[in-house]
Write a structure and sequence with these properties.
single chain, mainly alpha, about 70% helix
């Protein structure tokens, strides 16, 4: 019983820390600075910038590797951007553009908070959390973990938030695989929880209506969806298992920091992420399934 209680607590902490740090990282997907920087680096269009900038840490990998590690995007959507991105630019140029635009966006959104003592303290704590994250089985995290750390505290924190996000994401892929959900089915089960509407996800992942309907039918045959598209009891339990396993696999950095330092990091980062959200750095609803109080 004590072990179950401790495990439940670790999962809750992991989810709270994801919610706290996600806006600080995810602004890069919506910042106009990023779109311009990727265009200046030679990339063509938003989605080429998105796929190339997240994948560049792994080198000039083929579309199949991006599809595997990103998991829930339609393979044809990935193939429209990769490997052409590596003909138009290079991973080194794309990574430089990514950090340049993260710097610019953070300065615009956070203003004087960039140079605060809280930023310095938060960046040190987040970097320490990363020291407990092993690369085994975490391909996308491993690529980003091999990159050099920035020098300025606000970019150290952004890099740490990116690493923590990809570490969690790699674990989420494991959880989906264990539960037997493909990319489209994963989206449908998420939509059925009410965390994000279909229109906030399907157009941005390129699954056709026919493919979406076929995936819904597969979930109905499994007993996860009823005829109205609502999660059944089995579906709710299965989806909760995915979320619980994701949280558990994301817990090592917070176990390492311990309750006091993890709580302190949340206390320091929450106002920063809140400012980013209030300044329009992250749209709601969003494909991330993230809500904000």
């Amino acid at each position: 019983m004590a072990n179950e209680t401790a495990e439940s607590g670790a999962m809750a902490v992991a989810r709270v820390m994801w919610q706290t740090l996600e806006p600080y990282h995810a602004l890069i997907y919506f910042a106009p600075e990023a779109r311009q920087a990727y265009a200046d680096a030679g990339l063509k269009g938003y989605w080429m910038g998105y796929f190339a900038s997240r994948a560049a840490a792994m080198g000039p990998v083929p579309a199949e590797v991006v599809t595997a590690t990103f998991y829930n995007f339609h393979p044809q959507m990935v193939a429209r951007a990769i490997p052409d991105a590596w003909r138009f630019s290079t991973p080194e140029r794309v990574l430089a553009a990514r950090y340049q635009s993260a710097d610019a966006a953070l300065r615009r959104l956070l203003g004087e908070q960039i140079a605060s003592a809280a930023m310095v303290e938060a960046s040190a704590l987040a970097r320490e959390a990363i020291s407990a994250c092993a690369v085994a089985g975490r391909a996308l995290f491993a690529g980003h973990a091999a990159l050099p750390w920035p020098e300025e505290p606000h970019l150290v924190l952004w890099h740490a938030a990116t690493l923590l996000r990809e570490y969690r994401g790699d674990g989420h892929v494991v959880a989906l695989l264990v539960e037997g959900l493909d990319g489209c089915e994963a989206h449908i089960s998420q939509v059925a929880t009410g965390k994000a509407p279909r229109e906030a996800i399907q157009p941005h992942r390129a699954w056709s209506d026919e493919e979406w309907s076929a995936a819904e039918e597969r979930l109905r045959r499994r007993g996860w969806l009823d005829d109205s598209g609502t999660l059944t009891e089995a579906g709710r339990a299965g989806r909760q298992t995915v979320e619980d396993r994701t949280d558990l696999l994301a817990s090592p950095p917070w176990d390492h920091l311990g309750a006091e330092r993890t709580g302190r990091l949340r206390e320091l980062v929450w106002p920063l992420s809140d400012t980013i959200v209030r300044q329009g750095g992250l749209p709601f609803p969003n494909p991330l399934g993230l809500s904000w109080p």
